[in-house]
Amino acid sequence: MKKLLSLATMVILAVSVLAGCGGNGDSSTGSTGSTTAAGKFDSTKDITVISREASSGTRGAFDEIMGLIEKSGNSEVNKLFSEAVIASSTDEVPAKVEVDKYAIGYTSIGAVNDSVKALKVDGVEATEENVKNGTYKVSRPFIIASKGEASGIAADFIQYATSTQGQEIVKSLGFVTIDGAKEYTAPSTALSGKLILSGSTSTEKVIEKLREEYVKLNPGVSIEVTYNGSGAGIKDAQEGKSQLALSSRELKDEEKAALTPTVFANDGIAVIVNKDNTTTEMTTEQIKKVFTGEVRTWDKV
Q1: Can you give the residue ranges of every domain in the chain?
Q2: Which of 111, 200, 216, 263 has the most other CB atoms within 10 Å of its CB?
Q3: Model's pTM, two decimal places?
Q4: Is the pLDDT of residue 70 over 90?
């Protein structure tokens, strides 16, 4: 009887040791470090693709850079994965990635926070410096566009946004400054009236600060801004519904025929994943395959 009890005790101890050592099935495979242990990253799970709405300037720039737009005769076909989750604003993308361990998305580098992780793209980090020196290729301009040549308050606001004072604001918010800025001086004859802008949600942080500081210098001016996406803002300016359009992508040739664009900042588009994701970098080709749905799990990246 004592021998049986001793044998049973040894078996229990052996099982406990195995359990303590992760005998429950913790394994690691692939470049992303797949693991099936509770709470860990499992790279065999499906990737959640998060993109922006069709009118987004960020999406327009991202799709073009990543080759998601393909020509078909005289038209263009967008190859975005049909089951992609669509986010309606700049800040919504990192919010969705933060709560989904297997998600991937993209957003302005100015909108990246500690809740998500920005990947290196083609070996280059998504930083202000790398956008400025041209090594980080996933980048785009921030544009203010007027119907014809801007005048009055609209022209003066553009002058402020591109001035040394305006560029200090651009830099302070993590965006990339333009070259050739000059000091802004308020007009000797005080301006008064309303300025209406509409467009890119990606520009919201910098435009709100520019608006705040501009009105301090020109208290007779009020500025109304609607953040409804680059495409909608461009259309508003073309139709005369707003005086200035805000775009986070280059204007198309047909848009340039009606609007005069001015670059007031530059921005990188960060490719972001959940902080639990063990992936640290991807190539543009890998990103394209994920966003078209050709690659569906992290262990295939």
Answers
A1: 48-139+270-300, 141-267
A2: 200
A3: 0.76
A4: no
